[in-house]
Amino acid sequence: MNVVGGRLGSIRANPHSSVKTALKALLRRSAFAKGVVTALRGVWLDCHVLIWSTTRNRTIERYLQTAETTKLHLGASHNRLEGWLNSDVAPGSGMIYLDVTRRFPFADDTIDYVFAEHLIEHVDHEDALTMLREAWRVLKPGGKIRIATPDLGVIVQLHGADRTEAQKDYVDWIVARCMPFVDRCKEVFVINNAFHAWGHRFLYDRELLALTLSRLGFTDLTFCKPGDSSDPQLRALEAHGREIQNEEINHFETFVVEARALKH
Description:
Elements: H1 2-13, H2 15-29, H3 31-66, E1 71-74, E2 85-88, E3 96-97, E4 111-117, H4 125-138, E5 139-150, H5 152-156, H6 165-178, H7 186-196, H8 206-215, E6 218-224, H9 240-244, H10 247-253, E7 254-261
Parallel strand pairs: 1-2, 1-4, 2-3, 4-5
Antiparallel strand pairs: 5-7, 6-7
Helix pairs in contact: 1-2, 6-7
């Protein structure tokens, strides 16, 4: 009785605030309310996708007609590159809508370069295959793709008994940035975090990504560090280090692969 009486007393003291709080709690628990919110968000997104898809064709046509070298940037986000056709699934100003898990809005053999930084790990492996097949299709014969992604090989080695100073620094940096509550077995949390945080769906090591690219018809594979390339068109493209405000960490966790589209 005391508990019930206390709650009633609280409601009488501030009825509007208490009713509002109770309604919020009810909505959070309501599967129906969650379904309505999800449906409304879906309608909102569908409307925007329709608008983005309708308007992008003019932008693509204008770019292809005016660009001396055609360069497609997938998942551009905040890194909008000069001279590139920047695209994203949620495009901002100066970008086009492009869902990498679906057919690209380009004819075959249209693009000279395709670039994606910290994107492929955000889609399932099957969807990544779609993305790479589409990249191969739209690239001109001999056109190049460049992919930057977290290195699974580097991540799993964090669990070794004798960690290097670089590995220790990486673990400490991730913990301090993402999991400040962790004070034991830090590397275990960091490894799990790499698989589940930031919307990650599938992580690659160099062997798997190279094998995947080769099987899809890419050749002349080369690995390099972020920002480096023997091709001037592909240098200094990555922005992940700036976004996390730590280039050293970016270079530690990221590998970059370049390849050509072999076509007969």
